[in-house]
């Protein structure tokens, strides 16, 4: 997906390209949202949660700067935190789902305590546990993730409900001027699975190589 360059605070970024982002009534299409964000943030280091968010990121285009989690449910945000602290000059984008983030709520408190300005956590929330049969998740039953994140100390905690909010989201990710938590409300549609490599050593080594580190 092509993207136009924009400038903010002396840093280059890209605006998201409009497409079929709206789906399922008022909810957004997950694949279009992820493809738009990654196109608009081409220099970001991307950590995915397990399951559907990993498939979405892979479907948007595989790249060495993507690190896909095939396990460790609840670990995506914590891994993103460590990476953001270790790579302060890079934007770190965690893309995960509501079920995965619900398993790692404590990470939000630790992220808020550290406040890395280059870390953005984007939760694709369809209100369901897609990997285990589309049972309703806690966000369908009253849990407000943005309020949880804000209570932990993440002041920029926002819901994204419409395509025209994605440009502002991408600008924050690229600017690296404040920690961000975003809950993107997506349709509970089942989309074809597009699977990245399951070889953990390969994924680890190519990610290290992309950062200029020795592989092992």
Query: Helical residue percent?
Result: 25-40%
Q: Report how far apart the termini are.
A: 34 Å
Which regions have little confidence, pLDDT < 50, spanning 5+ residues? 1-12
> Which percent band covers the strand fraction?
15-25%
Rg, nearest Å: 16 Å
Number of strands: 10
Give the neighbour order of strands across the main sheet: 4-3-5-6-10-9
Major β-sheet profile? 6 strands, parallel
The count of helical stretches stands at: 8
> Which structural class do the helices and strands define?
alpha/beta
Secondary-structure element pattern, one letter each? EEHEHEHEHHEEEHEHEH
Broad shape: globular
Q: What number is the mean pLDDT? A: 88
Q: What does it look like?
A:
By secondary structure, the protein is α/β, with parallel strands linked by helices. The chain has 8 helices and 10 strands. The protein has helices at 30-40, 52-59, 76-86, 98-102, 105-114, 145-152, 166-175, 200-210; strands at 4-8, 11-15, 45-48, 66-67, 92-97, 119-125, 128-129, 135-136, 157-160, 180-185. The strands form 3 sheets. A 6-stranded parallel sheet has the order 4-3-5-6-10-9, with helices on both faces. The chain has a two-stranded antiparallel sheet with strand order 1-2. A hairpin with a 2-residue loop joins strand 1 and strand 2 (11-15). Helix 1 packs parallel to helix 7.
């Amino acid at each position: 997906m092509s993207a136009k360059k924009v400038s903010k605070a002396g840093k280059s970024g890209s605006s998201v390209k409009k497409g079929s982002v709206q789906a399922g009534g008022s909810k957004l299409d997950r694949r279009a949202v992820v493809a738009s964000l990654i196109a608009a943030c081409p220099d970001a280091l991307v950590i995915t949660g397990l399951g559907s968010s990993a498939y979405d990121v892979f479907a948007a285009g595989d790249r060495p700067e993507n690190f896909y989690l095939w396990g460790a449910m609840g670990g995506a945000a914590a891994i993103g935190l460590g990476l953001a602290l270790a790579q302060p000059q890079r934007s770190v984008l965690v893309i995960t789902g509501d079920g995965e983030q619900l398993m790692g709520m404590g990470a939000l408190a630790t992220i808020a305590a550290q406040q890395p300005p280059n870390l953005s956590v984007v939760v694709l929330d369809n209100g369901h546990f897609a990997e285990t049969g589309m049972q309703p998740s806690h966000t369908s039953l009253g849990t407000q993730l943005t309020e949880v994140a804000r209570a932990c100390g993440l002041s920029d905690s926002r819901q994204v409900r419409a395509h025209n909010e994605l440009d502002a989201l991408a600008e924050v990710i690229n600017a690296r001027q404040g920690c961000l938590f975003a809950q993107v409300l997506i349709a509970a549609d089942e989309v074809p699975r597009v699977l990245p490599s399951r070889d953990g050593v390969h994924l680890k080594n190519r990610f290290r190589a992309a950062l200029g580190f020795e592989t092992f």
